Amino acid sequence: MNLFEDDSGKADEKPDYENQPLATRMRPVSLKEFTGQDHLVGEGKMLRRMIESGVIGSLIFYGPPSSGKTTLANVISKEIDARFEVINAVLDGIKELRNVVAKAEHQKKANGRKTILFVDEIHRWNKAQQDALLPHLESGIITLVGATTENPFYSLVNPLLSRCQLFELHPLTKENVMVMIDRALTDQERGLGYMKINVAAEAKEHFAEYAGGDVRNALNALEVAALSTARDEGGVVNITLDIARESIQRRSVRYDRSGDEHYHYASAFIKSMRGSDVDAALYWMSAMLDGGEDPNFIFRRMLIFASEDVGMADPYALTVVNAAHESFMKTGMPEGLYFLAHTAIFLALSAKSNSTKSIFEINSIIENKGVLSVPDHLKDKTANKLASRYLDVKNSSEDYKYPHNFPHNWVPQQYLPDDLKDKSWYSADGSGREKKLWERLKKIKGEE
């Protein structure tokens, strides 16, 4: 038995606040204190009803860093009076899981107390490690609360997902952070309420805004400002906007080049260009760069966009992207921002056509039916000539009509296999350069 537990199996929960940072001291310990995620724990919401009833199954919390996954799991354990065990999937494995299960079995037999196992970064566990959880979830020895910043449908095995309820946590808002700042300033036991502190309104706004939804970041900065600022004659610590700026100089960025935000930001960037919204395209591109994204990745996405979404409406878009990328490679940053912006603006303003997608329809036909025979008159003329000579058959190449021998270099002729000769997949979009090219073709074919 844990030396810190009494005969009832309950751990001594009196926290030792000495030397703990403000953010740790102010971590919510009850639903009443928990801030944010109203869609989950607001009055009448499912998760809140589950907590209040004391009937909690295994859960997966999915959301960005600093959205409160660990805190909410800890709050649940306190609300239902369960033991709280933590495993970090980066550092711990099956051995640590077995130790937790052994303690959970002991506690359940000794006093019937539940154990909540919180597995942080659960997506870091491989299939075998995730599977090791299953029998213990089935037996009810432990209740799992897994936390992940990755999409669980991609990162967790199906048997585990089927045994858990999934709840998505949203980034904390500026207002949520402000609530926690105010609470820290007034709480005399855990916060800074024992000090005389006057925080200017604009300074408080700066803390909340620059935290980027990260309460820990905001409270740590507030504590630095409070403890490093000299008191005035009345013993009051006055935190001005300048002091706030010094305490939290870099805005917290949620962007993760290997996580979901990477794909969300890239998707928003592409869709903004597709929708011809120049400002939004520049915004999301800047957000990616601010988060540390490789500019070459952005250029690759714009190169694809130049064919996928601009396409034949402006065939020279490819040239523009490649030229800008080459210029970027010669200059680097920060001047390279000009070339990134130049390209994004050009693509957003360009006429759009997605007619190149017709290739995927044709791929589907080939995958389903295979490649059909080449019409005889299109076959290699040397092969046709030899076949005619040695097999005593007609030289099919004689039926081929050479377009350059006809007006406008065009003549009606079958080019598709016999079974597909009446099929058509390409559809001109009717925008930009493509419209002119298509109208020219229809004119020489006599369709106008």
Secondary structure elements and pairings:
Layout lengths: L21 H4 L12 H4 L4 H8 L5 E4 L6 H11 L3 E6 L5 H18 L3 E6 L6 H5 L2 H6 L3 E6 L3 H4 L2 H5 L2 E4 L5 H13 L10 E3 L1 H10 L4 H14 L8 E3 L1 H7 L12 H15 L3 H13 L4 H16 L6 H15 L4 H14 L8 H12 L11 H11 L40 H13 L4
Helix pairs in contact: 10-11, 10-12, 11-13, 12-13, 14-15, 15-18, 16-17, 16-18, 17-18
Question: How would you describe the overall organization of this protein?
Answer:
The protein is α/β, with parallel strands linked by helices. It folds into 4 domains: 138 residues, P-loop containing nucleotide triphosphate hydrolases (Rossmann fold, 3-Layer(aba) Sandwich), CATH 3.40.50; 74 residues, Helicase, Ruva Protein, domain 3 (Orthogonal Bundle), CATH 1.10.8.60; 90 residues, Zinc Finger, Delta Prime, domain 3, CATH 1.20.272; 88 residues, post-AAA+ oligomerization domain-like (Orthogonal Bundle). It is built from 21 helices and 7 strands. Helix 17 packs antiparallel against helix 18. The longest helix has 18 residues. The protein is elongated. The termini are far apart. The N terminus is likely disordered. Belongs to the AAA ATPase family. RarA/MGS1/WRNIP1 subfamily. Keywords: ATP-binding, DNA replication, Nucleotide-binding. InterPro entries: AAA+_ATPase (IPR003593), AAA_assoc_2 (IPR032423), AAA_ATPase_RarA/MGS1/WRNIP1 (IPR051314), ATPase_AAA_core (IPR003959), DNA_pol3_clamp-load_cplx_C (IPR008921), MgsA_C (IPR021886), P-loop_NTPase (IPR027417). GO terms for molecular function: ATP binding; ATP hydrolysis activity; DNA binding; enzyme activator activity; single-stranded DNA helicase activity.
